[in-house]
Design a protein that fits this description.
Chain lengths: 531, 142
């Protein structure tokens, strides 16, 4: 059973045949039923008419028998009728109500619809003398119908077998074979070489031919798109080689970051920039980008991850302290796709150095090499910001002014004056710590910022040492020695005032107080001196 | 006279075949005047002559007689059948013995004789020649 199902499932011809046979069988059964029904009807009619004929045959005798009331003759008629196998029962009733004769052929047979004939007198046609009732034999009729049905059924069965056989033959010959052959050829076809499928002979113009044409069109399309694909791949390889050449040989470092902030790939220039071995396998051992950049690790990491979501380009510069020299590197990060960032790194140390030099020059006094007014303003602003952040820390602001500097210039000339200025500047610079700042504001006016100077006594210690060194005369032009005097005013930021600008004014006031006190000394700002 | 009569009848018959039947040539069914039977219906006559009933209305057994000279005309007039049919009818009944045909008499005179002698006899004559001592019970027009 399952094998049959498998065959039906895998064989088109069998399936088609089974379906057609099923349909034909159903129709056959329908037709058979109809035919049997019609046949039964017609047999019934035939038998009725045969009975009528029989009655006509015996009518004259029956007329006479009835006319004379002759029971013997009537019985003769009855027996004659019963001798026909289609008659099962006969009865002759005289018109005066008596039964002249009756008989049954088969006592068990079921009588069908009876045929009744009124028999008239042989001499007076209008006068009825008796009535003959004949019952046809239903069993015999049924037998006839069954015979007819068997014949029709047999014919239909033969037809069914014939149709089934023919359908199998036709389907195998015209459908299955060509399709099987086609499928076989298709499996052996080397489509990539552009080889085409051949339609089976005799199927060129029908549906199978159409199928072959469609398959060939598909093969053409495939070959075409394969060629296109190949061309694009070649193009891409060339592109890639070109890109690779640029990637490997460019001076700029090119790298790629993943969403976790790890460097996934980098070119040789990048490795050189970050002092990594040229053979470093970043694919296998990714390096955290933040660890390369060093300082500000957390910020850098957060930035790298943020930027991926932001989707716009970001540029900034980082300083790298690798051993003996400091380097500046500019980084540009741009999103490549979700979870990937592309970065370009440039060594901008030279530019940065030049910029720093220019900045320094702009803030430096050309004569003494100390800060100038611009530098002082900048530094004062830094200090003010610092003080706002840490108000508990105090700073000292010192203003120095030469005593009688005009006389030095007038007496010995400007070069000597300049030397004196440089001398004082050198002494001041020698006394300062790293955090402190000295500037010449112009002429003979100097300013000193002492950062983190909480007590006035600390300032006094510094100034004692300054005045002590200043007392040693400056030798100029061989034997000439000059002694320089300086008046000094001090204002404490955090003690006298919290405002840096005001502190400048306060230290000025204090400096004038020192001048009034006899020069070459110092004075702290005191509020009472205002009055 | 008989011959003349026969000739006449023959000529009349041939004339009948060609033209309309003359009204005078009816056949009368006759009985003995003293039989007590006044009239018979056509059915009664058919039943008696075709052997269905044996008895007369009087209760006596009837004795129908055929006369050969008028037989063909009589049966044609009575049941519209020719002699062959009448003969075949009786032939069919010979073996059953249930009924028997009327007595066959050749001449009219013999019929006359029989009817005169037998009260139950039943015969037929040409209606134009009914003897006075016979009683007509039915006239059959042709």
């Amino acid at each position: 059973m399952s094998r049959l199902l498998l065959l039906l499932h895998t064989r088109l011809a069998l399936r088609t045949t089974a379906i057609i046979l099923l349909i034909v069988t159903l129709l056959g059964v329908l037709f058979l039923a109809l035919a049997v029904y019609l046949r039964a009807e017609s047999v019934q009619r035939e038998q009725q008419s045969r009975v009528q004929e029989l009655l006509t045959t015996v009518e004259r005798t029956a007329q006479i028998g009835c006319f004379l009331g002759d029971r013997q003759l009537a019985q003769e008629v009855t027996d004659g009728l019963l001798s026909n196998n289609i008659v099962s029962a006969v009865r002759i009733d005289s018109s005066d109500g008596t039964i002249l004769a009756s008989g049954r052929a088969d006592p068990e047979g079921e009588p069908a619809a009876s045929v009744v004939r009124d028999v008239s007198s042989p001499f007076e046609p209008g006068t009825s003398v008796c009535r003959i009732t004949v019952a046809p034999d239903q069993a015999y009729i049924d037998k006839l119908v069954a015979q007819a049905s068997n014949f029709i059924g047999g014919a239909l069965l033969l037809q069914l077998i014939g149709i089934g056989f023919c359908v199998v033959l036709v389907v195998v010959k015209f459908v299955t074979r060509p399709i099987t052959g086609l499928s076989h050829r298709l499996s052996e076809l080397e489509a990539e070489t552009g080889q085409q499928l051949q339609a089976p002979r005799g199927n060129k113009d029908d549906e199978i031919g159409q199928l072959v044409i469609s398959v060939n069109a598909m093969i053409d399309n495939l070959v075409q798109s394969l060629g296109e694909e190949r061309r694009l791949r070649l193009e891409r390889e060339v592109e890639e080689r070109r890109y690779r050449a640029i990637f490997d040989n460019v001076e700029a470092g090119i790298f790629e970051l993943d969403s976790a902030g790890f460097v996934r790939s980098a070119n040789p220039a990048f490795l050189r920039l970050f002092d990594m071995a040229s053979g470093t396998d970043l694919e296998r051992h990714p390096v955290a980008f933040a660890s390369l950049v060093g300082d500000g690790e957390g910020e850098m990491h957060a930035f790298a991850v943020d930027d991926e979501a932001g989707g716009y380009e970001r540029q900034w510069e980082v300083a790298l302290d690798s051993g003996e020299r400091q380097r500046w590197i500019s980084l540009i990060l741009s999103p490549l796709e979700t979870g990937r960032l592309q970065g370009v790194a440039h060594d901008v140390t030279e530019r940065r150095k030049a910029a720093d030099a220019a900045e320094r020059m702009a803030m430096t006094d050309a004569l003494t090499g100390l800060g100038n007014r611009r530098g002082f303003d900048h530094r004062l602003a830094v200090m003010a910001r610092h003080h706002r952040l840490y108000p508990e820390r105090c700073h000292a602001l010192i203003t120095l002014d030469f005593d009688h500097f005009k006389q030095i210039n007038d007496t010995y000339g400007h070069p000597v004056g300049d030397r004196a200025l440089c001398h004082v500047g050198d002494i001041l610079a020698g006394l300062m710590r790293q955090r402190d700042y000295v500037a010449r504001l112009g002429g003979d006016e100097f300013v000193v910022l002492l950062e983190g100077c909480n007590q006035r006594s600390d300032v006094e210690v510094v100034l004692e040492r300054f005045l002590h060194r200043l007392r040693k005369p400056l030798e100029v032009e061989g034997d000439i020695e000059i002694v320089i005097g300086v008046s000094i005013g001090i204002a404490m930021v955090g003690l006298d005032t919290d405002d840096a600008e005001q502190a400048v004014r306060f230290s000025d006031i204090a400096m004038y107080a020192a001048k009034r006190a006899g020069r070459n000394t110092w004075r702290f700002y005191e509020p009472v001196t205002q009055s | 006279m008989n011959r003349v009569q026969r000739l006449l009848i023959a000529s009349t018959l041939s004339a009948t075949l060609v033209a309309a039947v003359p009204a005078s040539a009816d056949i009368a069914v006759v009985v003995n005047a003293g039989s007590g039977i006044d009239r018979l219906t056509r059915s009664d006559v058919v039943n008696i002559f075709m052997g269905r009933y044996r008895k007369l209305p009087t209760g006596n057994v009837a004795l129908p007689v055929d006369s050969s000279s008028l037989k063909a005309r009589f049966y044609r007039a009575l049941v519209d059948k020719d002699l062959a049919e009448i003969n075949s009818y009786w032939a069919r009944l010979v073996f059953s013995g249930e009924a028997s045909p009327p007595q066959q008499i050749v001449s009219i005179g013999d019929v006359h004789q029989l009817v005169i002698q037998n009260m139950n006899a039943l015969g037929y004559v040409d209606s134009s020649q009914v003897p006075a001592d016979m009683h007509v019970v039915l006239t059959l027009s042709e």
